[in-house]
């Protein structure tokens, strides 16, 4: 039986902006249903990497393939949740969530209602973003991504600049969605704790230019997270030349 190609296959991915080398020869394979976290210092090229995976940037060298097909632009199979809020201030929660469906002309009110519920937004359907907390705005972005039923969810620092409790609640929401839908998730973060709490696999990357430093498979190894945590911290601390914790 033929083995399905991986959801995401990145080979020798290299990106420069003029003289600035941002990503240098990255290889990465992500399989169906994985939650892959990529951890690296600020400014190392994480957002650039996600933009390449989303098809919003073109590689300088190397390739990005989704299910065996080269990525040539953005597509409905990949949804990128940007670091900065991406909700529309002029639309209600419900309109924001159904936005992608409306654009395609196939609004499914049941699916919208379910995403609203799962993301903890029940009762806020008619609210405008200015009346929501930062954490709830992120939920709207998450709900909007989920109703599109993407093959792959790309998340850029999804929990940054939230207070600890809000961040935890949103992490729980993401885990619930991930388990319920089986969607493949690639999440980039500078936060080791977030990566270790959520990921089925963690890749540690270097300071710019971004290269692979270390990979850990955490599937079924909850007891080993502390050991992995120490290893990951050591690698990251070597990268930034500072004690981190
Ligand atoms: N479009 C661009 N043109 C020039 N430089 C860029 C562009 N996008 C990102 N960079 C540079 O690439 C480096 C990595 O940025 P980024 O991918 O945002 O890092 P991170 O998300 O890890 O903080 C930074 O030095 C940034 O200034
Ligand atoms: Mg970034």
Would you state the CATH class of the largest domain? Alpha Beta
Overall geometry: globular
Helix content: 25-40%
* Beta-strand content bin: 15-25%
Summarize this entry quickly.
With 245 residues, the protein is an alpha/beta fold. The chain is built from eight helices and ten strands.
Topology:
Elements: E1 8-17, E2 20-30, E3 35-39, H1 46-54, E4 61-66, E5 69-70, E6 78-81, H2 93-97, H3 99-104, H4 109-118, H5 134-147, E7 152-156, H6 164-181, E8 184-189, H7 192-198, E9 201-205, E10 212-217, H8 225-240
Parallel strand pairs: 3-8, 3-9, 6-7, 7-8
Antiparallel strand pairs: 1-2, 1-4, 4-5, 9-10
Helix pairs in contact: 4-5, 5-6, 7-8
The site of adenosine-5'-diphosphate has 12 residues, from strand 2 and helix 1.
Index terms:
245 residues, alpha/beta, Rossmann fold, 2 domains, 6-stranded mixed β-sheet, 4-stranded antiparallel β-sheet, 8 helices, globular, binds adenosine-5'-diphosphate, binds magnesium ion
Overview of the structural elements:
The protein has two domains: 1-77 and 150-245, 3-Layer(aba) Sandwich (Rossmann fold), CATH 3.40.50; 87-149, no CATH class. The radius of gyration is 18 Å and the shape is globular. The relative contact order is 0.18. Helix 4 packs antiparallel against helix 5 and helix 5 packs parallel to helix 6. Strand 4 and strand 5 form a beta hairpin. The protein has a six-stranded mixed β-sheet with strand order 6-7-8-3-9-10, sandwiched between helices. It has a four-stranded antiparallel β-sheet with strand order 2-1-4-5, covered by helices on one side. The N and C termini lie far apart (48 Å). It is α/β, with parallel strands linked by helices and 245 residues long. The longest helix is centred in the last third of the chain and has 18 residues, at 164-181. It contains eight helices and ten strands. Bound molecules: adenosine-5'-diphosphate (ADP) and magnesium ion. Magnesium ion (MG) binds at residues 46-47, 83, 156-157.
């Amino acid at each position: 039986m033929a083995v399905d190609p991986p959801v995401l296959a990145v080979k020798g991915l290299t990106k420069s902006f003029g003289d600035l080398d941002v990503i240098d020869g990255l290889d990465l394979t992500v399989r169906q249903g994985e939650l892959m976290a990529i951890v690296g210092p600020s400014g190392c090229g994480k957002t650039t990497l996600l933009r390449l995976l989303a098809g919003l940037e073109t590689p300088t060298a190397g390739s990005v393939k989704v299910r065996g097909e080269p990525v040539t632009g953005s597509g409905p199979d990949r949804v990128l949740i940007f670091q900065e809020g991406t909700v529309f201030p002029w639309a209600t929660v419900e309109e924001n969530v159904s936005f992608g469906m409306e654009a395609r002309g196939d609004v499914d009110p049941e699916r919208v209602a379910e995403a609203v519920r799962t993301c903890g937004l029940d009762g806020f359907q008619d609210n405008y973003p200015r009346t929501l907390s930062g954490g709830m705005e992120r939920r709207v972005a998450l709900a909007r991504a989920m109703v599109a039923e993407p093959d792959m969810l790309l998340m850029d620092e999804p929990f940054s600049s939230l207070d600890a409790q809000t961040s935890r609640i949103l992490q729980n929401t993401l885990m619930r969605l991930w388990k319920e839908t089986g969607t493949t998730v690639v999440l980039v973060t500078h936060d080791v704790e977030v990566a270790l709490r959520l990921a089925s696999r963690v890749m540690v990357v270097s300071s710019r230019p971004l290269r692979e430093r270390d990979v850990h498979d955490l599937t079924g190894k909850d007891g080993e997270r502390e050991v992995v945590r120490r290893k990951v911290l050591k690698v990251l601390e070597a990268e930034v030349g500072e004690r981190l914790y």
